[in-house]
């Protein structure tokens, strides 16, 4: 548990291997927890989250302090200090206060340096193998295999499968931080539930929801750029566009990945076809998960319609299901990967399907600490996207 971390030494933050979209690096803190740079508007959302929405968002676990570390060879890593907490925050799972001063170091510099030396070789090799000289990863990406960094529980390294997009974001993020800040700078990171930790082979669809993507605080240049992206994609016509995807191919034993650049180019028919592809495991259409997904989306739609003043600009919706089927002899991943992906031999249909809203850095609502504009009624752009998504899934279910 995150809150029971008192006295622990620095934890190396790993790239989150199941990040399929976004531009900000999401990192793995431990098996059930991920973290990301704290944005005050997103923190405000989680702190005042309506009860009805909690089942559709990751659990908020608090705040942790992180710093950048560079070794003598110039290798960059991020270290979280569980015992280095903001005054007044107490246990990490109850954190989130506004007092960010009077820090107390609990991790020694020597232990941090030793940790980096043990892990920088694997991290560098992973980046090189996963992103060979390409800053923008394109379509039809497949997982590659490489060493996993030591986890927060100090377990030994193991072979694992990486999503190239997450590694791309992680490398970019480290480079940006290195160019802007020195190593002594402490950064606030948000701790959130790892919503895919319970899945054997997590198939994930990242959807950018709504007809408008720019926040109220966007500059005129950024506003124009986002409006153009919406007009040239399915955001305008459907109220939803694909930002990333990974789907387990049972016939071949690997994951097929798509990125946001692929999603931007899709027509409404291309969107429908890609949605169909997301639900296909290489052998057949996963008809068993269609109804549970549709039911969850309808439940979310009902909740969103009741949230007056909320505008979820630039937020995403994750649709998640387990690529592992009980009664099917699926082609397994490489033997080295079995320990990571296969958590249990018994999985219910209910646990294999999930719908979660994420990324609230530009979400605004009445009473928000960072509110720029107060809106009336529900987010009709988001509702438009949800209704179209449900309609397309229903058509797929009916074989249309």
Automatic annotation (TrEMBL):
<dbReference type="GO" id="GO:0046854">
    <property type="term" value="P:phosphatidylinositol phosphate biosynthetic process"/>
</dbReference>
<dbReference type="GO" id="GO:0005524">
    <property type="term" value="F:ATP binding"/>
</dbReference>
<comment type="similarity">
    <text>Belongs to the inositol phosphokinase (IPK) family.</text>
</comment>
<keyword id="KW-0418">Kinase</keyword>
<dbReference type="InterPro" id="IPR005522">
    <property type="entry name" value="IPK"/>
</dbReference>
<keyword id="KW-0808">Transferase</keyword>
<keyword id="KW-0547">Nucleotide-binding</keyword>
<dbReference type="GO" id="GO:0005737">
    <property type="term" value="C:cytoplasm"/>
</dbReference>
<keyword id="KW-0067">ATP-binding</keyword>
<dbReference type="GO" id="GO:0005634">
    <property type="term" value="C:nucleus"/>
</dbReference>
<dbReference type="Pfam" id="PF03770">
    <property type="entry name" value="IPK"/>
</dbReference>
<protein>
    <recommendedName>
        <fullName>Kinase</fullName>
        <ecNumber>2.7.-.-</ecNumber>
    </recommendedName>
</protein>
<dbReference type="GO" id="GO:0032958">
    <property type="term" value="P:inositol phosphate biosynthetic process"/>
</dbReference>
<dbReference type="GO" id="GO:0000828">
    <property type="term" value="F:inositol hexakisphosphate kinase activity"/>
</dbReference>
<dbReference type="InterPro" id="IPR038286">
    <property type="entry name" value="IPK_sf"/>
</dbReference>
């Amino acid at each position: 548990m995150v809150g029971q971390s008192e006295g622990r030494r620095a934890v190396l933050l790993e790239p989150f291997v199941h990040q399929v979209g976004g531009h900000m690096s999401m990192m793995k803190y431990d098996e059930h927890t991920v973290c990301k740079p704290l944005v005050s508007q997103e923190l405000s959302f989680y702190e005042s989250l309506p009860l009805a929405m909690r089942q559709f968002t990751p659990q908020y676990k608090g705040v942790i302090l992180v710093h950048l570390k560079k070794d003598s060879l110039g290798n960059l890593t991020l270290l979280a200090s569980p015992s280095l907490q903001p005054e007044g925050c107490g246990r990490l799972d109850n954190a989130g206060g506004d007092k960010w001063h009077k820090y107390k170091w609990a991790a020694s510099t020597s232990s941090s340096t030793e940790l980096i030396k043990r892990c920088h070789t694997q991290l560098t090799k992973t980046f090189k193998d996963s992103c060979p000289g390409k800053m923008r990863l394109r379509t039809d990406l497949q997982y590659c295999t490489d060493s996993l960094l030591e986890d927060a529980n100090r377990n030994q390294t193991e072979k694992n499968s990486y999503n190239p997009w997450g590694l791309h974001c992680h490398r970019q993020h480290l480079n940006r931080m290195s160019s802007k800040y020195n190593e002594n700078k402490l950064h606030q990171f948000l701790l959130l539930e790892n919503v895919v930790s319970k899945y054997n082979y997590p198939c994930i669809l990242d959807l950018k929801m709504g007809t408008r993507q720019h926040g109220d605080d966007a500059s005129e240049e950024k506003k124009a750029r986002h409006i153009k992206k919406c007009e040239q994609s399915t955001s305008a016509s459907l109220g939803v566009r694909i930002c990333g995807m990974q789907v387990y191919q049972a016939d071949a034993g690997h994951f097929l990945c798509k990125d946001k650049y692929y999603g931007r180019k899709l027509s409404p028919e291309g969107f429908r076809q890609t949605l169909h592809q997301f639900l296909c495991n290489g052998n057949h259409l996963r008809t068993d998960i269609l109804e549970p997904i549709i039911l969850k989306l309808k439940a979310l739609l009902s909740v969103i319609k009741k949230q007056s003043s909320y505008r979820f600009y630039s937020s995403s919706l994750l649709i998640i299901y387990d690529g592992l089927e009980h009664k099917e002899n699926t082609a397994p991943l490489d033997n080295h990967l079995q320990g990571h992906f296969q958590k249990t031999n018994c999985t219910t249909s209910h646990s294999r399907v999930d719908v979660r809203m994420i990324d609230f850095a530009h979400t605004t609502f009445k009473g928000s600490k960072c509110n720029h504009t107060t809106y009336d009624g529900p987010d009709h752009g988001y509702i438009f996207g949800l209704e179209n998504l449900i309609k397309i899934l229903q058509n797929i279910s009916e074989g249309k």
